[in-house]
Design brief:
binds ligand 6CS; about 20% strand; D-Maltodextrin-Binding Protein, domain 2; alpha/beta
């Protein structure tokens, strides 16, 4: 009886099985699907699913708990990808508070684009620091200039004296900043802020206009003030063990998806922020929009110096990040066209 050589069939079956092998990955983020972090996550999902048989399940803020819970869930491997506001990360990864430091990040969008594309802090130093925390950093991107909304006009730290100002709950630097600005900082998760504004538990908060408009914070306060003190940024990372365990092909796919989503959000975010301000002006004509004068900003800038020194003094790593940040920002200022 002639034996049939089954080896080629078995081999073909194995190749077919591996090429059909599809994984489902969980991606949780700290905003809604139409917000910047959701736009990034959707672009990332589309790229992965159009270029492989892998699937991404998206979980917007609130579906797997508060934004404060997401980092632990990712580090535990319950979630494979994490989109998180940098203001929630400084308590766990102290170096991430570089992005909440007052009067450090540029507000000019061209400088921001150049900075995020070329910065050694973002592209060389932070990935190594994320690895130490069990995470693989994929992107950091800007969502818009920080604006402060209050019930009364303010022009100086004296005007903010004793005002209870909500800050994101994961950043020691935000607490130090608002103390330096004369206020009484109230670390609070996003989920508690609307109620706190309605009941007068807080006297104000800071967020980019895209968020202020999207969630009606202009209907809950009276004045929006541009102080030029900062920018709202978000990060995207993966569980490191999961990422390291990926095939070479899937690692390349994840990096390409992150690059694609990063480009998508860089062009979208600035438009969304400008659109947010436009809608506030159109739909809420009595709402006061104030931009501090150069002299008024200089008073806050002077107060910010102590916070910048405090950040650099917290560790040798923070000091190195601060020194490199100054070089990266100088390069952005010199090269941004
Ligand atoms: O203020 C906050 O907590 C929220 N703000 C933005 C712009 N994104 C998510 C974050 O939870």
């Amino acid at each position: 009886m002639k034996l049939i050589n089954l080896k080629p069939l078995v081999l073909a079956g194995m190749i077919a099985a591996t090429s059909l092998s599809a994984a489902t990955w969980k991606y949780a983020f700290g905003e809604g699907t139409s917000d910047p972090q959701g736009i990034y996550a959707t672009a990332f999902k589309n790229f992965i699913e159009e270029n492989s048989r892998n699937e991404i399940e998206l979980y917007k803020v609130g579906s797997l708990g508060e934004e404060t819970d997401l980092m632990e869930q990712t580090r535990a491997g319950l979630i494979q990808f994490l989109g998180q506001s940098t203001g929630y990360m400084g308590g766990t990864i102290p170096e991430m508070d570089i992005f909440t430091l007052p009067y450090v990040m540029p507000t000019d969008t061209k400088q921001l684009d150049y900075f995020f594309k070329n910065s050694k802090v973002v592209n060389k130093m932070l990935p190594k620091i994320f690895n130490k925390h069990g995470l693989e950093l994929l992107s950091i991107f800007p969502e818009g200039e920080m604006a402060i909304t209050t019930f009364e006009v303010f022009h100086s730290p004296a005007d903010l004296q004793g005002k209870k100002m909500r800050v994101m709950p994961g950043s020691p630097i935000l607490v130090e900043t608002y103390k330096a600005f004369g206020a009484s900082p109230q670390p609070m998760s996003w989920g508690d802020l609307v109620g706190a504004l309605k009941t007068g538990m807080v006297d104000g908060q800071e967020n980019p206009t895209v968020w202020i408009e999207a969630y009606g914070l202009d209907d809950l306060t009276k004045v929006l003030t541009y102080t030029g003190h900062g920018h709202f940024n978000a990060s995207v990372s993966a569980n490191k063990e999961f990422y390291d365990g990926l095939s070479k092909r899937d690692k390349k796919l994840v990096q390409e998806a992150a690059d694609y989503a990063h480009k998508t959000i860089l062009s979208e975010a600035q438009k969304l922020d400008a659109y947010g301000l436009g809608r506030i002006i159109r739909t809420n004509p009595t709402y006061k929009i104030v931009t501090l004068t150069k002299d008024e900003k200089n008073v806050f800038k002077e107060k910010a110096k102590a916070v910048q020194k405090s950040f650099a003094s917290k560790s040798a790593s923070n000091k190195k990040i601060m020194e490199q940040m100054e070089k990266d920002l100088a390069a952005a200022e010199a090269n941004a066209k």
